[in-house]
Amino acid sequence: MHTRGGVLRTSGDGPVEAPEPRPTRLPLVVHVLALGTFLMLTTEFVVAGLLPEIAGDLGVGVARSGLLITVFAVGMIVGAPLMAMLTLRLPPRWTLTLALGVFAAGHVVVALGSSFALLLAARFVTALATGAFWAVANVAAARAAGPAASSRALGLVGAGGMLANVIGVPLGAFAGQLLGWRGPFWALAVLAAAAGWLIARTVGRDGAHHHAVSVRSELTALRSGRLWLVLAACATTTGGVLAAYSYIAPLLTGRAGIAAGLVPLVLVGFGVGALAGSLLGGRLGDTRPHATIIAAAAGSSALLLAICLLAGFAAPAVALIAVLGFFGLGANPVLISLAVRYAGQAPTLASAFSVSAFNFGTAVGSWIAGHALDSALGTTGPAVVGTALAALTLIPATALARTQRHRAAPPVL
């Protein structure tokens, strides 16, 4: 007999629920959604490698041109829940296709624009579309894969974003140096249009059905205490890792003695680790989600502490940063999966808030780390901040595990 979460089998004590067998292959739509997240994360971080060229062309300072990154992060924090609510009654295929269309149009505006204010506005609107895409893509991927493989599907969607740090961002920066900084934005616009066409052809066909719910029903998800624990873990785990990662270049050049030209290769190592961690974390999260989160938080804290202590030695520092990518971002698909699960009949808003929580943690962690960099701690300051934030993840992660254990415990007769 089938139930909502599995199959009923009988034993000597009566019927018990057995989990559904995990599918060997994920639906095509999950891979297409991963392509979308690859484009989204590429555009978020590719600007970092093009700031001098943008600043010189527009006649602004490099520090001011950095606002193109800041405004995108703010747009993601605000845009994910806002756009998720505004597009709630639209079928997922429409929302995803529309988001990619706005994403492509925003990049065309950036590629053609000559006003810095116009570029800031275009980046903000693009971030709103990115937030809408990411929130709905998580739900669509989880539904297409089914409960038995939802974390694995989210791991693949998240891996598309991790792959951006390995391929998309370095390739975009290299292309910008060869063809001018506007070239990567033209390329992203074309790729987004192609991804929108693929989304329109695959989401409905692969069975990501639309379940119409009201705004009021979605807002009831915010009453879940477990959901807020998940969101807290989203903010602290990502905030801790990216607080250190955002200022890893001064640490590598100032303390470890690594040449500035080799820093991008170290960052690629971090990206490869993050990609592997996202894929493996997604697989483990389907069977042992809470253990995966706790292990990732503990591993990240230990690695960041080791970076603080061994930053003066080049080889250990490089190795630790690569492994940090594996542990530091490996739990993200599991956290998104739990947020969607604990939201019950209102998964879209929960997915959107998880995206906002990741970006909120990144913004706050990086801000604190910047102040630590100017303190007496110097170049190790951001890693110290990251260690503390990552360790805080153990609090909500342990609380979630204890809550789950109490719910699973048999009643006392």
From TrEMBL:
Residues 29-405 form the Major facilitator superfamily (MFS) profile domain. The lineage of its organism: Bacteria, Bacillati, Actinomycetota, Actinomycetes, Pseudonocardiales. Its main location: membrane. It comes from the Bacteria. Residues 1-20 are annotated as: Disordered. Gene3D superfamilies: MFS general substrate transporter like domains. It is a multi-pass membrane protein. This is MFS transporter. It is found in: Cell membrane. InterPro entries: MFS, MFS_dom, MFS_Efflux_Transporters, MFS_trans_sf. Keywords: Cell membrane, Membrane, Transmembrane, Transmembrane helix. The chain crosses the membrane at residues 28-51, 63-84, 96-118, 124-141, 153-179, 185-204, 225-248, 260-281, 293-313, 319-342, 349-369, 381-401. Pfam families: MFS_1.
